[in-house]
Amino acid sequence: MSDTHAQTVAFVRDTMLPEREPPILERGAVKWMRENLFNGIISTALTVLSVLVVAWGVAEIGPWLMRSIWDAESLSGCRQILDGASGACWAVIKDRWHQLMFGFYPPDLYWRPVLTLILLFVALGPILFPWVPRGMIRFSAIYPFLGYFLLWGGSVWFPVSVALGFVAGYAALVAFRSLGTLVSTIAAIIAPILWWLIAAGTLTAVLDSIVPLGLERVDSDEFGGFLISLVIGFTGIGLSLPMGILLALGRQSNMILIKSVCVTFIEFIRGVPLITLLFTAQLLLGYFLPPGTSFDLILRVVIMVTFFAAAYIAEVVRGGLAALPRGQYEAADALGLDYWRAQRLIIMPQALKISIPGIVNTFIGLFKDTTLVVFIGLLDPVGLSNAIRASSDWQGIYWELFIFIGAVFFIFCFGMSRYSMYLERRLQTDHR
Amino acid sequence: MAMDSGAPRESFRLSMLLYDTRYRSYTIQIFALMLLMLGAAWLIDNTIQNLAALGKDFSFRFLWSTAGFDISQRPIEYDSQMSHGRAAIVGLLNTIILAIMACALATVLGVLAGVLRLSNNWMVARLMTVYVEVFRNIPTLLWILVFGAIMTEAMPPPSAFRGDTPAASMLLFDSVALTNRGVYVPEPLFTRSLGSIDLGGVRPSLDAIAFVLVVALSIWANIRLIRHATAVQNATGVRPKTWWKSLLILFGPAIALLLALGFHLGYPELRGFNFGGGIHLRNSLIAMWLGLGIYTGAFIAEIVRAGILAISRGQTEAAFALGLQPGKTMRLVILPQALRVIIPPLISQYLNITKNTSLGLAVGYMDLRSTLGGITINQTGRELEGMMLMMLIYLAVSLTISGAMNIYNSRIKLKER
Amino acid sequence: MKKSIFLGTLAAAALTAGTAVAQDTLEEVRDRGELNCGVSTGVNGFSAPDANGVWQGFDVAFCRAVAAVVLDDPMAVNFVPTTGQTRFTALTSGEVDLLSRNTTWTFSRDVDLSLTFVGVNYYDGQGFMVDRALGVTSATELDGATVCIQTGTTTELNLADFFRVNNMSYEPVPIETNAEAQQQYLAGACDVYTTDASGLAATRASFENPDDHAILSEIISKEPLGPAVRQGDDHWADLNRWVLNALIAAEELGVTSANLAELAEGTDNPEINRLLGTEGDLGEMLGLDSEWAQRALAVGGNYGEIFANNIGEQTPIGLARGLNAQWTQGGLIYAPPVR
C-alpha cells in the first residue's frame, strides 16, 4: 500500500500550476470578433457584406462631407469655391436657417417662439418627470394661454378672458354639485361655452380699452418652418389625448348610440388618408360652416390633425382597457365608485400605463405627419425647402436641405421614442 | 288600510329619468341623438345654403364628362377623350399597384431586418438598428422626396446612352436601363400570342391569364402531392421523396406553356427621345415604391423583432430537446406562434402603406388622389362630390384590407378551450 | 394637456378672423385694414417674395394698386400664396378678396366656378421650351417626347389636345410647382417644359445658361390672364375692373408716375381730368373719393410702367409687349372710355 503511495506521490503536484494565458483565439478582441462577427459561414458573409456597405457609404459620402462649404452667397458661389470637386454646400442652411426654423415670423420677434419653446419644456417638466416639483403643474395649466399669447401676440386680455371660461366651467361644476354629477357635468360644459360666446369678447374689448397691454400681433400666415410643425404637432398631441380617451370610453360604452357614433368616427378617420382630411380642412370646411364664416388655416389643420390622432389614440387606449382584468372594474363597483370616479381613480391610471408605448408612437407619427401640410400650401420645412429651391440663388440644391430637415426631425422623434422607453421602465411596477 | 298591505310598488316618476341608472342611459342617449341630429341638420343646411350661394348643385354627372387630360401610367386603356370616371379608375388601379408593390418590399425588408437585428452578429445587428431608427424617425414624405431626387438627379438622362462612347451604359447585359426618367426593364413578349379579350373597356391579355391559371393549377397539384406524402408518412413512417416531383409539377407546365406561346424578352432600346420597348417603371413609381417600402420596412422590422422576442425562450429549448434542428424550430415552433403577435400590427402597417400612397402627388405619381382628388376636382370645380367619393373609395379599400386580414387573423388565432 | 390652446385659438378665430365672406367685400376690406390677395407661390417677375420677404412682380403690382385705392396704403396687402389646385377655392371660400395670379379666363371658370374676371392684364399663350442640344425647331417634331407640365392648370388640357390633333404621342410628367418643374427639366428628366410663354421666359431667365434653351415658336393656345374676384359682389368687381382700366387708360393718355402730380393739377384733356378726379364725380360712383386713380397710379405707375419694370425688356425676364401693347400700338390692350 505504502509502496503504491510512495510511487504515486512522485506524480502528485502539491502546488498549483501558474495560470496560463487563454489561447489567442479565446481572448480579447479576437475572441469577441470570433463570437460576434465570424461565428459561422453565413455570419462571416454578412459581416463582410456589412463592412462593404459601410465602406461604400463612407467612400461615397465622406469626401462630399469633408469638402463642406459654409460661406457662400449662392449655389454657384459654392461651386466656384469647390472648383469642380463635389462637396456639401451648407451655406444654404446658414443663409436660410432662420426661414427653415421660423418661416416668415418677424425677425426682431424671434425671441417669442424661442421663449415659447423653452417654456414648453418647463411646462412639460412636471408632467414628464417625477423629480420636478409638483407645484410646477400650475404653470403647466396656464402654459397653453401663455404660449398662445407669446406666439400670436395681440391683447393679453384675450387669452386671459378665454382662460376665465375654464374657471367659469369649474365654478359651475362646484355650484351644481348638489344636483348630481350629470347636471353638474352638463353645467360645467355649458357655462364656459356661454362665457366664450357672450362675455369673453366684450370683456376683452373692455379690459383692453382700460389697460391696453399686449404684444405685437403676428398672423398665422407668417408662421412657417419647424415653428409650424411644432405648433401643429404639440397642439394636436395635447388635444388628441383627452379626445382619444373619451372616444375609447365611448366605444366601450353600453349605450348603443354613443358606441356606434364613436365606432363610426374612429373607423372613418382611420380608413382615410390624413391628406384627404387636410384637403377637407382646406376645400370643404367652407361648405359645412354657416355662409360667411371662415377661420384660420392653421387652426383648421390643427382640428383635423387632432381628429386624426384622436382616432388612433382611441384604439391604443381601447387596447389598454381591454388588457385590464375584469376584476378591476368589479372592484371599483364594489367600492361604490360612480362611473367617472372609477375611470379616474382605478381604470384609467392602469389602462393608460399599458398604452404608453402606443400613445407615444402615435405622437411620433403625428409629428412626422405634420409635413403633409405642404400639400395645402402651408410652408412647413418641406414646403420651405421647395421655396428655397425656387429662388435663383439656390436652384438645384437638394441633399443639404433634406439632410438638415431630416436631422431635426430625427432628433425630435428619436428623443420621444427614448423617453417612451424611459417611461415604460419607470412605470414598471410589477416585480420581475 | 288594506291598500297599504300590498308590496311597495314604486311608480314611475319623471325624476327617475335622471337619477335611476335603469333609465338614465336612455335619457342621455335620446339627448345625444337629438344633439347629433341637430348637428347633422345644421351641417346639411349650411352645405345647401353654400351650394346655392355658389350656384352649384350636388351631382356626380361630372364623372361622365370628358376628362381632357392624359395620364402617363395606364394599367388599363385610357386617353384624354375618356371620362373623368375612367381617369379615377386608372388612378385607383395605380394606387393599388403601388400599394401591393410597397407592401411586398416592406414585408421582405422588414422580416429581414427584424430577424437580423436579433442576430448575434454584432456588425449586422448594429447596421439594422441604424436602418430601423433612421427610417422610422424621419417623415415618409421626406423619404419619398429623397428617392425622387435620387432618381432625377443622380441617374443619367436617356441622351447619355446615345453616341459611340456613351456616358452611361445599361446594366445586366444591356437589359436594364436606369435613367432619370425611370427604369426600363425587359418585358415578356409572345410570338404566338393568344391575344386579348374585351371585357367592357378592360382588355386583359389572354397570355397572362393562361399563365396565371397554369401556375395556380401547378401550386394546387403540388399541395396535393405534399398532402399525399404526409399521409403516407403518417401511415408508414417513411416520407416518400417528393422534391423532384414537386419541381416538375411546379415548373414543368409553366415552362411548357411559355415555350408553346413563343416567350421571349423585349429589351428596352433607345428610340427617339426616350427608350422604347421594355416595361417603363416611371420615376414617380420607383420613388414612391422605395420611399414607402423602405420606410414601412423599418416599422415591420420592429414588429417582427417584438413578435419573435415575445415567444418565450422555453419554446426554443423545448424544440431543441425534442431534437428539432434550428431551421425546423423556427419554422414549426417559433414562427407559427410569433405570427399571432405579428399579424395584427402588420395589417395596420399595410393599411398605412395604402393610405400613404396618397402622397403620390409629391413626385407626380398619378394615383387616385392625383387624378380624382387632384386634376378632376380642379378642372370641374366639384370639390364636395369629388372629395366625398375619394374618401369613400379609400374607406372601402381600407375596410376590405382589414376585413380580409381579420379573417386570416381569426384563422390562425390561438384556439382557446 | 393643452386643451385650451385649441379653444383659445377657436375663440380667437371666431372673434378676430371670423365672418370673412360678407356681402360687401369693400367694407370688409376696409374694416380689416388689409387686402387679402391670392398670388402664385412664386413665378419670377409675376409674383415672388424678394430677399426681404416683400412680394414683387406684375401680378403683385395690381394687388398693391387696389390696396392703394381702397386703403390708401399699397403695402396693406396680405399675400396668400395659392397653388393651381387651391386658388379657386381660396377665392370662393373668402380666404382671399382678389385673385391676381396668372389665371386664364375661360368659359367654365367664369360661369361654372363662379368667378368674375375683371379684365385681361396679360394676353398669353402656351409654348414649349426645349434644350437647344436636342435640335428641335418645331413643336410638331416632339413625337414621343417626355413633357413636364404643372398640374391643375389649363396647360395639361391644351397639351393633350395639341398632341392629339397632331397625332403624336407623349409622356406627361405632372409636377406641382413651377420650381420643381424647372428642376426636373434642367436635370433632363423631361425633354420639354410647357407652360404659358411668359412663364417660360421668366423661367428661362433664371437659368444659369439661358441661351442653351429655346422657346419654340408655336403657341398652342389662347391664355388671356387676368385678375378675378368672387361672383356676387358686383360693386367689388366694378372697383377692381376700373382700377385695372385706369392703369391701362393712363398709359394710353400718357399719365405716368413722373408727371402724375403735375397732371393732377388739372389739364386741358377732359378725359385725363375725369380719370384723375379733377373733373366729374367718377370716384363717387364707385363709392370712393375723387383721387382714387391717382393713388393707384402713384404705386407703380401706369400699365406700361408696371409691365416694363417687372417683366419688360429691360428686366431679366425680357418680355416684349407684343399682343400686350396698347391698341394704338397694334396690341390688344384696350380700356373702355373713362366717362
Commentary on this structure:
The complex is a heterotrimer of chains A (432), B (417) and C (339). With 432 residues, chain A is mainly α. Helices cover 72% and strands 1% of the residues of chain A. Chain A has 17 helices and 2 strands. Chain A has a two-stranded antiparallel sheet with strand order 1-2. In chain A, 38% of the residues are buried. With 417 residues, chain B is mainly alpha-helical. Chain B has helices at 16-19, 21-54, 84-117, 122-136, 140-154, 206-236, 243-261, 283-310, 313-321, 326-356, 368-380, 383-412; strands at residues 177-179, 182-185, 187-190, 263-266, 269-271, 274-276, 279-282. Chain B has a 3-stranded antiparallel β-sheet. In chain B, strands 3-4 form a two-stranded antiparallel ribbon. Chain B has a two-stranded antiparallel ribbon with strand order 5-6. In chain B, helix 8 packs across helix 10 (326-356) and helix 9 (313-321) runs antiparallel to helix 10 (326-356). Chain C has 339 residues and is of the alpha/beta class. Chain C is 38% helix and 17% strand. Chain C has helices at residues 3-17, 25-32, 58-71, 87-92, 107-111, 155-165, 178-187, 197-205, 234-253, 260-263, 270-276, 282-285, 292-300, 303-310; strands at residues 35-40, 48-49, 55-56, 77-82, 98-99, 115-117, 122-124, 126-131, 145-150, 170-175, 192-196, 213-215, 223-225, 228-230. In chain C, strands 10-9-11-8-12 form a 5-stranded mixed β-sheet. In chain C, a hairpin with a 5-residue loop joins strand 2 and strand 3. In chain C, helix 3 (58-71) crosses helix 9 (234-253). Residues 1-22 of chain C have low confidence and may be disordered. Chains in contact: A-B, A-C, B-C.
